[in-house]
Structures are given as structure tokens and as C-alpha cells.
Write a structure and sequence with these properties.
single chain, alpha/beta, inorganic pyrophosphatase (n-terminal core), globular, binds manganese (II) ion
Length: 326
């Protein structure tokens, strides 16, 4: 379903724009996941097939477990000096321009396309292809490829299936609709390597990550009669486990999977900031809770960066969750 808000673009409008331009820079969000990268790579590969020039901009390094994605080796934090004037900058899977980070050159809004499925997308582009009913940004891209009449080959299919498997948690989250399974079957028939995606994204845990998970669970605290669970990770914990920031990704999902838990929060106090990840079992809207503190995301999965101490973050997040009905 097309978002009806003012400024939302139709598939036809976006397809016409993609055909009109000669060069593209696909932009992924900071701390990239399989959706932001897979969607950009999938669309990038398709555009190359019809003779377009494509680059990939990414502020942070591609995480180890996503380097298998086709095109990952071409990602860069800088952009070529000789980009033509009609270059279109395509932002994938970000609810706001600020999610792209701090290293982009100035870009006129006229040259921005925003492709996303987040609730509360700020419609920062000239064209905003924002479809909150889609399970991933990759499935928004699938609609565009159909409109462009570009055949999905095995590499595009693997990238797009990776977006779906990332954002449905391997077909487990509530956004796994019959349509999503149909699209996934289509991608597998086109040659998507589901085994590779499963192995790389879901069965590729590093030993330090598992040690860190153990520590985080051990130190977790419950509140609100067991409906809320939170844990904190700091530099010292990372160091003791030989872990790094990438090794924290799955922890909040494990906390959420504990019986009776309605909301789980992970506070990541390292690299000089407090990052908070929130997950809901479906009753409390954690997107709204995060938005109260300058963050965003989805009903059941959101995040924010807190400016202040961990103690203040704990209090502010608790308050925001209570205000959302926890
Ligand atoms: P995670 O907890 O995995 O970092 O993020 C969960 C979801 O919330 C993702 O969909 C992500 O895009 C969104 N999200 C995380 N951090 C932020 C943030 O600081 N701002 C916004 N708008 N969304 C965020
Ligand atoms: Mn996404």
C-alpha cells in the first residue's frame, strides 16, 4: 500500500526518476544492517544492469557478517570527485537524513530519493518512497524493480532476501505476512542463496559475542513486575570478553525472548555515547517511546542515542516506556 501522506511518491514517479538519471550513490545508515545494505546493493546491481553508474556510500565499516553481500566490497566512505550533475543519492532504510552520518558532502534535496519502511519517516527527499506496511526496505526495492522491468538475478535475489531475513528475524517477527513468504519464495526461485544468508547472518556468532551475551544476561535487571528487562554494556565488559560493538547486536532480542517480558532495553555505553536498543513483544509501542527521546524505528524495534549519563538514560527510557503504557 502506498503511503498517502503529502510528499509520498508513487512507484511510477520513482521509476521515471531512476530511468532519467545517469548516476547513483546508494547511501546506507550508520551501523548498517542487512536491510539498509541489501536494499542498496540490490537496487545498485539492477541499475548497473541497465547501464547506470552506481557507487555505494557508507559511513561505518560493513559488519563482518554482512561482507558476503554482493557489492559489499565496493562500499566507501568517500565519493568520487567526477560525479555528474544529475547524480541521484538514494537513501535506503533511514527514517531521517541524519541517519546517514556526518561524512556526506552537501547534497541538494532535488537529488535525494528516500526509500524506506519506517513509521515516522521525515520525508527528507525530493521523492519519498516510504511504505510502512513493507517488511523491509528491500521489498520496497522489489516493487521498483518490477516497475523498471529488470529481471532479478541470483545476486540481486540474495541481497533482497537478506533484507527480508534481517528485518523479519529469519521469518519470525510479526511482519512475516503471507505476502512476505511469497516474495521470499520468488527470490529463492530466482537463485537467492538462503543457506548462505542463514549461515552468515544467523549462525556465525563469534565466541566473544556469546561471552558478552552471557555477561549481559547475568547482569540484566527486571522491573515493572517482570514486564521490563534491561541490561547495560560498557567498555570494560567489551574488553573483558574481547568483544566489540558489533558483538552486541543480538543481545536485546535474547532479553526480549524471556517469558512475560513485554519490553527489553539494551544500554550500550561505549565509544563515548549511550546507544539504546528497544524491543517490544507487541503491546508497547517502542517506536513512540524512542521518538520521545529523539530516536525512532518500528513499533516492536527501535533505537536512540542518549545525550547524558547511563543513569539518566535508564530513567528517561523508563519514563518514556511508562508514558507508552508499560
Ligand atoms: P537497533 O536497536 O537495531 O539499533 O535499531 C532498531 C530499529 O530502530 C532499526 O529499525 C533502526 O533503524 C531504528 N533506530 C535505531 N536507532 C535509531 C535512531 O537513533 N534514530 C532513529 N530514527 N531510528 C533508529
Ligand atoms: Mn529496515
Amino acid at each position: 500500500m502506498i503511503d498517502e501522506r503529502a510528499g509520498a511518491a508513487t512507484t511510477e514517479e520513482v521509476v521515471a526518476e531512476l530511468r532519467r538519471r545517469s548516476a547513483f550513490v546508494m547511501v546506507s545508515h550508520v551501523k548498517p544492517d542487512g536491510d539498509t545494505l541489501g536494499a542498496g546493493f540490490g537496487l545498485g546491481l539492477a541499475l548497473k544492469k541497465i547501464g547506470k553508474r552506481v557507487h555505494y556510500f557508507q559511513q561505518d565499516e560493513v559488519p563482518r557478517n554482512l561482507r558476503f553481500l554482493r557489492e559489499a566490497e565496493f562500499v566507501s566512505r568517500s565519493v568520487p570527485a567526477d560525479l555528474p550533475a544529475d547524480t541521484l543519492w538514494v537513501f535506503c532504510d533511514m527514517s531521517d537524513f541524519s541517519r546517514a552520518g556526518e561524512f556526506l558532502p552537501p547534497i541538494s534535496r532535488e537529488n535525494m530519493l528516500d526509500i524506506d519502511h519506517h513509521l515516522g519517516n521525515s520525508h527528507f527527499g525530493k521523492l519519498n518512497y516510504v511504505l510502512p506496511s513493507e517488511c523491509s526496505t528491500g521489498t520496497c526495492v522489489m516493487r521498483l524493480l518490477r516497475g523498471l522491468d529488470i529481471e532479478i538475478d541470483r545476486d540481486i535475489a540474495t541481497n533482497l532476501l537478506a533484507t527480508i531475513m534481517t528485518d523479519t528475524g529469519g521469518f519470525m517477527h510479526s511482519n512475516t505476512t503471507p505476502d512476505v513468504l511469497r516474495l521470499s519464495a520468488e527470490l529463492m526461485l530466482a537463485g537467492a542463496d538462503k543457506e548462505l544468508i542463514t549461515e552468515q547472518i544467523f549462525a556465525n556468532k563469534r565466541w566473544p559475542a556469546m561471552r558478552l551475551l552471557g555477561r549481559a544476561i547475568d547482569a540484566a535487571q527486571v522491573a515493572h513486575e517482570g514486564r521490563y528487562i534491561w541490561a547495560c554494556i560498557d567498555d570494560e565488559m567489551l574488553e573483558r570478553c574481547g568483544a566489540d560493538g558489533e558483538d552486541t547486536e543480538e543481545i536485546v532480542n535474547h532479553l526480549r525472548s524471556i517469558e512475560h517480558v513485554e519490553v527489553a532495553a539494551l544500554f550500550k555505553a561505549f565509544d563515548g555515547e549511550v546507544r539504546v536498543s528497544l524491543r517490544s513483544s507487541g503491546r508497547v509501542n517502542v517506536q513512540s517511546a524512542a521518538a520521545r527521546l529523539g530516536g525512532g524505528g518500528h513499533f516492536r524495534a527501535s533505537g536512540l542515542t542518549f545525550r547524558g549519563s547511563v543513569a539518566d538514560a535508564l530513567k528517561a527510557v523508563d519514563d518514556a516506556l511508562v508514558a507508552e503504557g508499560l
